[in-house]
Amino acid sequence: MFQRDEVSRECKGASKTISSLYCKMATVSLKLLVDNSTEKVIFAEAGKDFVDFLFGLLEIPLGSLLNLLAKERMCESWSLTKVYESVNKLGNEYLQHDRTKKSLLNPDMPFSNTKGTPLMQQLGYQKSQSSSSSFSFGSSRIDDRKEMDGYVKGSVTYMISDDLTVKPMSSISTISLINSLGVKDIGTLEEKIVDIDMKKALELVRTSFGSSTVLTDVFVEKTMKKCEIVD
After folding, report:
1. Which of 7, 109, 149, 206 is 20–30 Å from 183 (CA)?
2. d(CA 76, CA 79)
């Protein structure tokens, strides 16, 4: 469940930037099952709050995600970042007359009748405003007056694989995953509770673009990293 800390005195009057939002942090907890013998996450046990956050990422335009990651210097080596920087440096005289850099570099969120989670709101999630009470796309029609609370039902516990595959959790799916990963000794398995704040959420987003072991990469500190070279 999300928990909001009290706003510290330093945050009073601060502008709504990524850094200032660290002072008022929403967090979500994950229960990880870690195999200590391989130093890998088997899966995470998550509730509605974290799953809503993951699914909500699909609604954020790519330009906005790059803007968030760039502010934290999390994607400097990406080729897409070079495209982003090219747009930023391009003279306005080269853009179509009805185009602005903001529409590419930090576009508005698309219209949605889904309420953003606290983490999504801190990442900059703002539902686009519409002058009408509904929004139509093709043959579908979304009624703005009926705001939905996230994307999934809250009465279900979900299993998140290391590659961020999301499934409803069950004893059968848990045992099947453990067996498929070749775990030989369940005595090496350990539960670990981690809290995800906005900075950690951005790290998850960045890692997910180039890894199939996201939870391990973000939350498991490798033994090799702790070792010091001894002459």
Report:
1. 206
2. 8
In the chain, the amino acid numbered 78 is W
The answer to whether the beta carbons of residues 227 and 39 sit under 8 Å apart is no
Question: Burial of 220 by CB count in 10 Å (0-12 exposed, 13-18 middle, 19+ buried)?
Answer: buried
- Could you give phi then psi for residue 217, rounded to 5 degrees? -65, -35
* Identity at 133, one-letter amino acid code: S
Question: Which two structure tokens, joined as six digits, stand for 174?
Answer: 């848990």
Rg, C-alpha atoms of the chain: 21
Both tokens of 189, joined, read 């398995």
Asked if residues 144 and 134 have their Cβ atoms less than 8 Å apart, the reply is yes
Q: State how far the Cα of 6 lies from the Cα of 223, in Å rounded to an integer.
A: 35
Q: Which two tokens stand for residue 166?
A: 């999301």
> What are the pLDDT digits (tens) for 69-126?
888 888 888 898 999 999 999 998 898 877 788 889 888 777 777 776 666 766 665 5
Alpha carbons 104 and 154: distance in angstroms, whole number: 35
Highest-confidence segment of 20-24, 59-63, 114-118, 208-212 = 208-212
17: which residues sit within 8 A by CB, 6+ positions away?
71
Nearest to 84 by CA among 64, 100, 98, 99: 64
Contact call for residues 37 and 188 (beta carbons, < 8 A): yes
Buried/exposed 72-102: b ≥16 CB within 10 Å, e otherwise? eebbeebeeeeebeeeeeeeeeeeeeeeeee
